[in-house]
Amino acid sequence: MQEYTVETQGICAKAITFSVEEGKIYNVKFFGGCPGNTLAISKLLQGYDAKKVVELLKGNDCGGRGTSCADQLACGVEEALQEKKLAQA
User: Fold this and answer.
1) I want to staple 38 with a disulfide (CB 3.0 to 4.6 A). Which of 7, 33, 53, 55 is the partner?
2) 86 vs 68: CA distance, rounded Å
3) Helices and strands per DSSP (H, E), number in the chain
């Protein structure tokens, strides 16, 4: 299972890691951020369809920042899916 790392910008979490296997997301971990919220996101997404993660979370805003922990996770998952697609081509 390949692990991906998102180096974040403009949010409380400094980084986010996750894995994608067979189109599902696993092992989401936020480094920083609001502990209760980021832990809940991680638990809720375990084994969730990666494409749906992108649809659900992309564009979520935190306090007018134009992004959020969830948004940056979604962007990272979207990039990972694109990488996997290119690698399989």
Assistant:
1) 33
2) 27
3) 3, 4
Q: Give, in order, the Cα–Cα distances in Å from 80 to each of 38, 54, 62, 64.
A: 20, 11, 23, 26
Cα angle: 4, vertex 43, 29; to 5 degrees: 30
pLDDT at 87: 76
Identity at 22, one-letter amino acid code: E
**How confident is the model over 39-86, as pLDDT tens digits?**
999 999 999 999 999 999 999 999 999 999 999 999 999 999 998 887
What number of other Cβ atoms are within 10 A of residue 15's Cβ?
A: 15
For 16, residues 6+ apart whose C-beta sits below 8 A from its C-beta are 5, 6, 8, 28, 29, 30, 31, 69, 72, 73, 76
